[in-house]
Design brief:
Elements: E1 14-19, H1 30-47, E2 49-56, E3 60-67, H2 72-92, E4 104-107, H3 114-122, H4 124-127, H5 142-147, H6 158-161, H7 167-179, H8 184-196, H9 204-213
Antiparallel strand pairs: 1-3, 1-4, 2-3
Helix pairs in contact: 1-2
Length: 227
Amino acid sequence: MPRHARLVIPDVPVHLIQRGHNRHACFFGEDDFQYYLRWLMRFAKESGCAIHSYVLMTNHVHLALTPHDSGGLALLMKMLNQRYVAHINKQRSWTGTLWEGRFKSCLIFDQSYFLTCMRYIELNPVRAGMVGHPRDYPWSSYRANAEGTFNPCITPHAIYQSQGDTEADQRSAYRNFVSSNEDQIHTDNIRRATNGNYALGETVSTEELATALGRRVTPGKRGRPHK
Protein backbone atom coordinates (compact mmCIF):
# COMPACT_ATOMS: atom_id res chain seq x y z
CA MET A 1 0.00 0.00 0.00
CA PRO A 2 1.46 3.40 -0.94
CA ARG A 3 2.22 5.78 1.89
CA HIS A 4 -0.02 8.80 2.36
CA ALA A 5 1.66 12.13 1.81
CA ARG A 6 2.00 14.29 4.89
CA LEU A 7 -1.03 16.54 5.39
CA VAL A 8 0.00 20.06 4.47
CA ILE A 9 -2.15 23.10 3.77
CA PRO A 10 -0.40 26.40 3.10
CA ASP A 11 -0.55 28.74 6.10
CA VAL A 12 -2.01 26.10 8.43
CA PRO A 13 0.37 25.32 11.33
CA VAL A 14 1.84 21.86 11.83
CA HIS A 15 3.18 19.93 14.82
CA LEU A 16 6.07 17.69 13.83
CA ILE A 17 8.19 15.10 15.59
CA GLN A 18 11.37 13.50 14.25
CA ARG A 19 12.89 10.65 16.29
CA GLY A 20 16.33 9.15 16.25
CA HIS A 21 16.69 5.68 14.72
CA ASN A 22 15.47 3.09 17.24
CA ARG A 23 15.04 6.09 19.57
CA HIS A 24 18.81 6.33 19.94
CA ALA A 25 20.50 9.66 20.61
CA CYS A 26 20.83 12.11 17.75
CA PHE A 27 22.43 14.98 19.69
CA PHE A 28 25.72 14.31 21.45
CA GLY A 29 26.96 17.71 22.59
CA GLU A 30 26.32 21.45 22.60
CA ASP A 31 27.85 21.88 19.14
CA ASP A 32 25.29 19.46 17.67
CA PHE A 33 22.31 21.40 19.09
CA GLN A 34 23.77 24.65 17.79
CA TYR A 35 24.48 23.17 14.37
CA TYR A 36 20.91 21.87 14.03
CA LEU A 37 19.36 25.20 15.04
CA ARG A 38 21.61 27.15 12.71
CA TRP A 39 20.50 25.11 9.71
CA LEU A 40 16.90 24.97 10.89
CA MET A 41 16.80 28.75 10.76
CA ARG A 42 18.42 28.91 7.32
CA PHE A 43 16.39 26.17 5.68
CA ALA A 44 13.13 27.41 7.21
CA LYS A 45 13.66 30.70 5.39
CA GLU A 46 14.64 28.99 2.14
CA SER A 47 11.61 26.68 2.21
CA GLY A 48 9.08 29.32 3.24
CA CYS A 49 8.34 27.96 6.71
CA ALA A 50 7.88 29.98 9.91
CA ILE A 51 9.04 28.30 13.13
CA HIS A 52 6.88 29.10 16.18
CA SER A 53 8.07 26.64 18.80
CA TYR A 54 10.66 23.88 19.14
CA VAL A 55 12.49 21.60 21.51
CA LEU A 56 15.58 19.53 20.72
CA MET A 57 15.64 16.52 23.02
CA THR A 58 18.52 14.06 23.16
CA ASN A 59 16.83 11.57 20.83
CA HIS A 60 14.06 13.50 19.11
CA VAL A 61 12.89 16.90 17.89
CA HIS A 62 9.53 18.68 18.15
CA LEU A 63 8.62 21.63 15.94
CA ALA A 64 5.51 23.80 15.59
CA LEU A 65 5.71 25.63 12.29
CA THR A 66 3.69 27.08 9.44
CA PRO A 67 4.59 26.22 5.84
CA HIS A 68 3.54 28.92 3.40
CA ASP A 69 3.27 26.57 0.42
CA SER A 70 2.36 22.91 0.06
CA GLY A 71 5.91 21.70 -0.57
CA GLY A 72 7.66 23.77 2.08
CA LEU A 73 7.47 21.32 4.97
CA ALA A 74 8.88 18.35 3.05
CA LEU A 75 11.62 20.52 1.55
CA LEU A 76 12.62 21.90 4.95
CA MET A 77 12.91 18.49 6.57
CA LYS A 78 14.71 16.94 3.60
CA MET A 79 17.39 19.64 3.55
CA LEU A 80 17.71 19.80 7.33
CA ASN A 81 17.88 16.06 7.91
CA GLN A 82 20.39 15.48 5.12
CA ARG A 83 22.62 18.30 6.34
CA TYR A 84 22.50 17.18 9.96
CA VAL A 85 23.08 13.48 9.23
CA ALA A 86 26.12 14.38 7.12
CA HIS A 87 27.42 16.47 10.03
CA ILE A 88 27.04 13.65 12.56
CA ASN A 89 28.39 10.94 10.24
CA LYS A 90 31.48 13.01 9.48
CA GLN A 91 31.99 13.92 13.11
CA ARG A 92 31.66 10.34 14.40
CA SER A 93 32.92 8.41 11.34
CA TRP A 94 29.50 6.78 10.89
CA THR A 95 27.53 5.83 7.81
CA GLY A 96 23.84 5.39 7.21
CA THR A 97 20.80 7.05 8.66
CA LEU A 98 20.36 8.81 11.98
CA TRP A 99 16.59 9.27 11.90
CA GLU A 100 13.73 6.82 12.36
CA GLY A 101 12.16 6.97 8.92
CA ARG A 102 9.96 9.89 7.96
CA PHE A 103 8.96 12.55 10.43
CA LYS A 104 5.46 12.38 11.92
CA SER A 105 3.18 15.38 11.84
CA CYS A 106 -0.34 16.73 12.21
CA LEU A 107 -2.15 19.83 11.08
CA ILE A 108 -3.12 22.11 13.95
CA PHE A 109 -6.44 22.68 12.25
CA ASP A 110 -8.32 23.62 15.40
CA GLN A 111 -6.95 26.95 16.58
CA SER A 112 -7.78 26.17 20.19
CA TYR A 113 -4.99 23.60 20.12
CA PHE A 114 -2.22 25.89 18.90
CA LEU A 115 -1.03 27.24 22.26
CA THR A 116 -1.63 23.82 23.84
CA CYS A 117 0.71 22.34 21.26
CA MET A 118 3.37 25.00 21.93
CA ARG A 119 3.13 24.25 25.65
CA TYR A 120 3.32 20.51 24.99
CA ILE A 121 6.52 21.02 23.00
CA GLU A 122 8.27 23.33 25.46
CA LEU A 123 7.37 21.25 28.53
CA ASN A 124 9.02 18.12 27.10
CA PRO A 125 12.21 18.52 29.18
CA VAL A 126 10.13 19.01 32.35
CA ARG A 127 8.03 15.92 31.70
CA ALA A 128 11.25 13.97 31.06
CA GLY A 129 12.62 15.05 34.44
CA MET A 130 15.59 16.83 32.88
CA VAL A 131 14.78 20.24 34.38
CA GLY A 132 12.36 21.65 36.93
CA HIS A 133 11.26 24.58 34.76
CA PRO A 134 11.22 24.98 30.96
CA ARG A 135 13.44 28.08 31.13
CA ASP A 136 16.24 25.89 32.48
CA TYR A 137 16.47 23.87 29.26
CA PRO A 138 18.57 25.77 26.70
CA TRP A 139 17.47 23.91 23.55
CA SER A 140 13.86 25.02 23.32
CA SER A 141 11.96 28.15 22.32
CA TYR A 142 10.48 28.73 25.78
CA ARG A 143 12.77 31.62 26.70
CA ALA A 144 11.87 33.41 23.46
CA ASN A 145 8.12 32.86 23.68
CA ALA A 146 7.71 33.34 27.42
CA GLU A 147 10.53 35.68 28.44
CA GLY A 148 11.47 37.66 25.34
CA THR A 149 14.98 36.27 24.84
CA PHE A 150 16.08 37.02 21.29
CA ASN A 151 15.84 33.93 19.11
CA PRO A 152 16.22 34.39 15.34
CA CYS A 153 14.56 31.00 14.69
CA ILE A 154 11.20 32.08 16.11
CA THR A 155 8.38 33.85 14.29
CA PRO A 156 5.35 34.48 16.55
CA HIS A 157 2.07 33.15 15.17
CA ALA A 158 -1.03 35.35 15.03
CA ILE A 159 -2.75 33.12 17.62
CA TYR A 160 0.12 33.70 20.05
CA GLN A 161 0.03 37.44 19.32
CA SER A 162 -3.72 37.60 19.94
CA GLN A 163 -3.07 37.00 23.67
CA GLY A 164 -2.24 40.67 24.27
CA ASP A 165 -1.88 44.10 22.72
CA THR A 166 1.85 44.33 23.43
CA GLU A 167 4.69 41.82 23.23
CA ALA A 168 5.05 42.00 27.01
CA ASP A 169 1.35 41.17 27.44
CA GLN A 170 1.67 38.26 25.02
CA ARG A 171 4.65 36.84 26.89
CA SER A 172 2.91 37.23 30.25
CA ALA A 173 -0.22 35.48 29.00
CA TYR A 174 1.85 32.68 27.54
CA ARG A 175 3.83 32.21 30.77
CA ASN A 176 0.57 31.92 32.69
CA PHE A 177 -0.76 29.44 30.16
CA VAL A 178 2.35 27.25 30.33
CA SER A 179 2.29 27.27 34.13
CA SER A 180 -1.35 26.13 34.22
CA ASN A 181 -2.09 22.42 34.47
CA GLU A 182 -1.78 20.44 31.27
CA ASP A 183 -4.99 18.85 30.05
CA GLN A 184 -4.20 15.15 29.68
CA ILE A 185 -6.97 14.64 27.14
CA HIS A 186 -5.57 17.39 24.93
CA THR A 187 -2.05 16.01 25.37
CA ASP A 188 -3.21 12.53 24.33
CA ASN A 189 -5.02 14.02 21.33
CA ILE A 190 -1.84 15.79 20.21
CA ARG A 191 0.12 12.54 20.42
CA ARG A 192 -2.51 10.52 18.56
CA ALA A 193 -2.91 13.08 15.80
CA THR A 194 0.84 13.47 15.32
CA ASN A 195 1.58 9.74 15.28
CA GLY A 196 -1.30 9.12 12.88
CA ASN A 197 -0.72 12.11 10.57
CA TYR A 198 -4.19 13.49 11.28
CA ALA A 199 -5.62 16.97 11.60
CA LEU A 200 -5.77 18.09 15.22
CA GLY A 201 -9.27 19.11 16.25
CA GLU A 202 -12.80 18.03 15.45
CA THR A 203 -14.50 20.69 13.37
CA VAL A 204 -16.68 20.86 10.28
CA SER A 205 -13.60 22.01 8.40
CA THR A 206 -11.78 18.73 9.05
CA GLU A 207 -14.76 16.83 7.58
CA GLU A 208 -14.56 18.99 4.49
CA LEU A 209 -10.83 18.39 4.33
CA ALA A 210 -11.29 14.62 4.54
CA THR A 211 -13.80 14.75 1.67
CA ALA A 212 -11.43 16.81 -0.45
CA LEU A 213 -8.46 14.51 0.20
CA GLY A 214 -10.41 11.27 0.04
CA ARG A 215 -8.92 10.01 3.31
CA ARG A 216 -9.40 10.20 7.07
CA VAL A 217 -7.82 13.26 8.69
CA THR A 218 -8.90 12.62 12.30
CA PRO A 219 -8.48 9.46 14.40
CA GLY A 220 -11.31 6.94 14.26
CA LYS A 221 -12.88 5.38 17.34
CA ARG A 222 -10.85 2.55 18.83
CA GLY A 223 -12.08 -1.05 18.76
CA ARG A 224 -14.30 -2.97 16.38
CA PRO A 225 -17.34 -1.25 14.89
CA HIS A 226 -20.73 -2.19 16.35
CA LYS A 227 -22.70 -4.71 14.35
